[in-house]
Input
Amino acid sequence: MFLTVEGIEGAGKSTFIGLLEEELGRRGIDFLRTREPGGCALGRQIRPLLLDASQNVSSRAELFLFLADRAQHVADTIRPALERGRWVLCDRYADSTIAYQGYGRGMDVEELQRLNDYATDSLWPDITFLLDLPAEVGLGRALARNGREGLTQSEGRFEAEALAFHQRIREGFLTRAARWPERFCVLDAEQLPEAVVAQAVKHLEPYFGEKH
Ligand code: Z5A
Output
């Protein structure tokens, strides 16, 4: 079972995944937690290039760095785990590229869909949890967290983008969720973290018996 978690900045993905991990553990599910960018050895070298605010990376170069990270991550980590019957729980995946580089940066969405098919050899998640909330709420949370962790307000290339950029990304995710309703499970991320996870667990209930 391949699960991905998507959402705008500050949607609460890390918090959500932490709580979901506990639930999966309690149910005896053998799972792998991973993330993009940076879920494999090559990706850990690529990640700082993508997130460093001082890097002047062109949109196309950025796209191919995300795709290189993903291609290696699928080959090295995700596919082998799925083939061994494990569940994979991944923080961001191909939908992020289409939302950020497509809807956010204005690159051609259908072209990005094809490039993701190529990079992943057509591996798409079984279920995608979309943590949905208004962009200003997510950015507010991310900035408060950065403040607590001693980072500057605009630390990171994506945090520094204008509110309209993050609003386009939210709309992009929702457009994808409407196009693939059988894959996406849209969760109201303005609720308390425990309530968000409870909705996800309810959605997963039919799969728990299968354990793969
Ligand atoms: N990116 C891309 O452009 N293209 C791609 O193909 C891929 C990614 C794969 C990766 O950054 C960046 O790369 C990302 C998209 C882009 N940039 N942005 N934006 P990252 O991995 O460093 O960061 P992130 O993925 O955006 O995650 P995040 O900012 O760390 O947020 P989060 O994991 O969703 O949230 P959190 O840390 O769990 O929560 C944020 C704060 O809110 C924190 O203080 C929590 O305590 C609080 N929180 C969490 N849940 C709640 C609820 N339910 N209520 C209230 N407060 C909450």
